[in-house]
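Subgroup meeting minutes
Present: P.N., E.W., G.H.
Scribe: E.W.

1. P.N. recapped why we're keeping a running log of single-chain structure predictions: easier to compare across weeks, and new members can see raw inputs and outputs side by side.
2. G.H. added today's entry (735 aa).
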Amino acid sequence: MEVCNCIEPQWPADELLMKYQYISDFFIAIAYFSIPLELIYFVKKSAVFPYRWVLVQFGAFIVLCGATHLINLWTFTTHSRTVALVMTTAKVLTAVVSCATALMLVHIIPDLLSVKTRELFLKNKAAELDREMGLIRTQEETGRHVRMLTHEIRSTLDRHTILKTTLVELGRTLALEECALWMPTRTGLELQLSYTLRQQHPVEYTVPIQLPVISQVFGTSRAVKISPNSPVARLRPVSGKYMLGEVVAVRVPLLHLSNFQINDWPELSTKRYALMVLMLPSDSARQWHVHELELVEVVADQVAVALSHAAILEESMRARDLLMEQNVALDLARREAETAIRARNDFLAVMNHEMRTPMHAIIALSSLLQETELTPEQRLMVETILKSSNLLATLMNDVLDLSRLEDGSLQLDLGTFNLHSLFREVLNLIKPIAVVKKLPITLNLAPDLPEFVVGDEKRLMQIILNIVGNAVKFSKQGSISVTALVYKSDTRAPDFFVEPTGSHFYLRVKVKDLGAGINPQDIPKLFTKFAQTQSLATRSSGGSGLGLAISKRFVNLMEGNIWIESDGLGKGCTAIFDVKLGISNESKQSGVPKDPANNRHANFDGLKVLVMDENGVSRMVTKGLLVHIGCEVSTASTSEECLRAVSHEHKVVFMDVCMPGVENYQIALRIHEKFTKQRHQRPLLVALTGNTDKSTKDKCMSFGLDGVLLKPVSLDNMRNVLSDLLEHRVLYEAM
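Output recorded in log:
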């Protein structure tokens, strides 16, 4: 039996390969023809593509490749020469286009690579811009938080509220687990836990300020990450299973606390810091970011500024409260002082009037008694009574003057007067006493001394009388000289300088005696009120110790200076004073100086006088004086009685006016009304008063009185008053 060992294939092997090539060329041709269509669509849609012509060329290359494979289908069988030519042409064109495309790509690829490089650069720039935008957004977010925190912190100026608000806002903004503030103790050697975020009343324990971690934080203005296990970071007890969060600390400057002196804060002379500690949540992978640390640093600075403002406010409020307390105390003291001054003035006014009324009776009756026939012993007694009364009246005047000088109510009564006559009048008053003691007195007036000056004649006379009177009083032998000249600057009074002008000059008066003298160490005491030296002469001569004290105040009121020079006991002394006087334009005054003795024999017989005085004794004494000099006197005890009794026959009406109140002044107005139609027949109205202040004189003038007569009044004084009143129709010099 015969077995067949081979199987013949369906197609021969060569034919099968050819068949596969045929099929492959067909599909390659289809693919080549489809790719240009896609490139044409891409070029059409990509209007901004910079290499469109390259794509067109690449498309032609593919089309030719496809045509070559398509034509190649006819080469698998017997084909004509035409097919061979077409095939050859297609392959030649394909070769040309392929070479051109390859050469073109050599130039295009670097451009494409540079485009890729620019693309990468732009991508990097875009990424960098994204990072910068992220940083800007972070900074904006941080700035927003800082503004918000700053607003919350500065919304109050209470430092406790500031610190608590800072912790709360930081904890809310940064989502902190805990935040705390350590404040320096009063000694400045420790830090004390004062404020925490989560605990209303933290345990106030302290840590030494010399700890390395604290020194590290205080050594920089930046926020510093510290160990969660450091003493200042142990703010809350935590379980062992938790991982502690990151902790940062930052210093808070306490700006110049020593200047503010806050009660419960340390008094620091150098710059010190508080410590702020911030803790992220435990068991968290969160870490501190740079912008968060910057936020913490900015907030620490803002807290420092807010605390300084709060400290300034507390200090200013404390100063304001202290000032208000002082003002209240000063106002109370002022009211008490004003009340005391008013009470003193009222007391002096009342006592002055009440004391002058009996003094008026004593002096008036003594002067009347002096003109009767008396034995030598009786006359000596009467003269002693009269001298003592005058001394008491002088003391009363001194006390009142001193009181008004001290409270500033005394003012100078400026007027033009004859300065030469004033000195001669003072000597005339002093000479009788000096003659009794056998003390010669000489007066030396400089040739250039002005005759008529402007000043307070009464006060200047009082100063000269006090000083010359002291010289006579304390001298038992020797002589007394009074020198007056125009003062020019010298070295006698180094603390006193003059500036003479064309309208005023400085008068210098020197009173030199050869009496008891004064210890140099006692001289400063002489101008103290109620003070006396300890010499025998002083103790034996009496005196109140007010004369020089008042004279010094009068001299100061006249913008002058006064002092005393002495070489010691038994060597005499010299009193010197300077006062400022105005220069009068008058060269002469009409008439001659008044001599009180000229009025002793004045005739007042038949002169009708009405006396109104509520005090019976004073009324009787005044009537006695007037009757003694020849007047016809009628009396009235009340204002109404006086108004009914006064008539045109009366030439003078003496009326007592009492302080306080104006009731007795009203009678003057009513008398004026009564004589409205017969003004030339109205009697002269003279006030009898014990008040020596200027307001009494002003009030008398305002109510239409023609003169003021100060109690007490002696017989000679009454004669002079009536003479001057009848001659000049006005009398205010007696004040």
